């Protein structure tokens, strides 16, 4: 039996037909498919404006620039996230300051944020991890009291809502990723949303070489090229059409895993944040001997993934500017990394696959 992969994009005839249409149209860069994809995304997310970026990391970079974040500023970033969240901050010239996450579900620990706020703090970056929302009530409350901007990293947050509102729409900007492992994918891609007219205008200038229209060589501002292609948007439109089915299937897979692991007392699961729905990004378990379990499963049946390596431990972040919090401060991001592991939840994963994975986990603990 071939090993079950961690990620498997669901691409079918709809995507192929759409891409063929783009090629027949002979309009390859941002064109009618981008316009349609953007307007459908805005309707689904419930935001006023949205612009594309080449990937989620650059979406965060673009969003931060539009908020005016730059050298001399600090941005509070959870310690347990993909490194792209922090690198986007570094790219602006600002400093990421790492905060621990909660033990319950590894989202940003808002109780620990207040202590990290200084006169340099410009923004908070909650990351909606594993397909659930961070505690956005607390984020908006702390940001409001301290006059801070909020940039939501919703790379894993497509379809995820908090108190009925889509993630990415609480802060000043929200950023999504459409990388191949994301809930909907266009291969590589990102999206920045906002409800603010001024921020939207900045985003437009920044992503198009500091001008509003193409074809003009007068550039009122400094900007860059953040365009995507109509081929990607064509794939995105087909993916968006399938989103309700993707979410339904992920929830069914989640239910099957929970059922299949019911009698394995050694294992526990992160608790979905109160107010958030659940669009499983991976099936996340916490287990003693997680690293040994990963090896066991990797050798036999399924490609596993660990949690993100805590940012404060990253070899590239060992210089003094990154190590404000020391010792046992990051107790929960370290706990998550030591005990957490991720199993696949892609829509085409079969019931038989899930049963075999659960069977092997049971075998690991009980035999
Ligand atoms: C939480 C988080 N933030 C940021 C990113 C960066 O997105 P991308 O890989 O599209 O640059 C990812 C995805 O890999 C992610 O999971």
Write structural notes for this entry.
- The protein has 367 residues and is an alpha/beta fold.
- The protein contains eleven helices and twelve strands.
- Helix 2 runs parallel beside helix 8, helix 3 crosses helix 7 and helix 9 crosses helix 11.
- The longest helix is centred in the C-terminal third of the chain and has 31 residues.
- The protein is globular, with a radius of gyration of 21 Å.
- The model has no long low-confidence stretch (mean pLDDT 97).
- The site of pyridoxal-5'-phosphate has 14 residues, from helix 3 and helix 4.
- Say what the CATH topology of the largest domain is: Aspartate Aminotransferase, domain 2
- Our measurement of the CA-to-CA distance between the termini, rounded to an integer number of angstroms, reads 22 Å
CATH class of the largest domain: Alpha Beta
Structural class, please? alpha/beta
Strand line-up of the largest beta sheet: 1-9-8-5-4-2-3
Report the sheet with the most strands, covering strand number, pairing sense and barrel closure. 7 strands, mixed
Name the overall outline: globular
Total DSSP helices? 11
Main attributes of the structure:
7-stranded mixed beta sheet; single chain; 2 domains; globular; 11 helices; 367 residues; Aspartate Aminotransferase, domain 2; binds pyridoxal-5'-phosphate; Aspartate Aminotransferase, domain 1
């Amino acid at each position: 039996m071939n090993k079950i992969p961690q990620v498997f994009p669901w691409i079918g005839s709809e995507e192929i037909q759409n891409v063929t249409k783009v090629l027949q149209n002979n309009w390859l860069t941002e064109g009618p498919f981008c316009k349609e994809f953007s307007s459908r995304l805005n309707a689904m997310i419930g935001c006023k404006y949205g612009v594309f970026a080449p990937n989620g990391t650059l979406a965060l970079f673009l969003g931060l620039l539009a908020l005016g974040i730059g050298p001399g500023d600090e941005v509070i970033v959870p310690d347990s996230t993909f490194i792209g969240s922090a690198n986007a901050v570094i790219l602006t010239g600002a400093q990421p300051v790492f905060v621990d996450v909660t033990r319950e579900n590894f989202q940003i620990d808002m109780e620990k944020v207040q202590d990290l706020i200084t006169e340099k703090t410009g923004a908070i970056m909650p990351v909606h991890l594993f397909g659930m929302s961070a505690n956005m009530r607390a984020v908006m409350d702390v940001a409001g009291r301290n006059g801070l901007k909020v940039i939501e990293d919703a790379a894993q947050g497509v379809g995820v809502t908090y108190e009925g509102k889509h993630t990415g729409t609480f802060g000043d900007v929200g950023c999504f990723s459409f990388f191949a492992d994301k809930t909907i994918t266009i291969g590589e891609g990102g999206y920045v949303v906002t409800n603010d007219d001024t921020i939207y205008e900045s985003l437009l200038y920044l992503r198009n070489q500091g001008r509003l229209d193409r074809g003009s060589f007068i550039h009122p501002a400094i900007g860059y090229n953040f365009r995507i292609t109509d081929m990607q948007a064509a794939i995105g439109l087909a993916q968006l059409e399938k989103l309700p089915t993707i979410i339904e299937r992920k929830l069914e897979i989640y239910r099957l895993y929970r059922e299949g692991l019911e009698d394995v007392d050694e294992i526990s699961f992160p608790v979905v944040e109160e107010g958030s729905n659940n669009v499983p990004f991976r099936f996340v378990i916490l287990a003693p001997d997680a690293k040994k379990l990963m090896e066991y499963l990797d050798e036999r049946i399924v490609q596993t993934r660990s949690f993100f390596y805590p940012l404060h431990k990253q070899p590239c972040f060992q210089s003094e500017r990154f190590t404000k919090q020391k010792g046992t401060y990051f107790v929960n991001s370290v706990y998550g990394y030591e005990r957490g592991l991720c199993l696949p939840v892609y829509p085409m994963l079969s019931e038989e696959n899930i049963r075999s994975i659960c069977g092997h986990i049971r075998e690991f603990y009980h035999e």
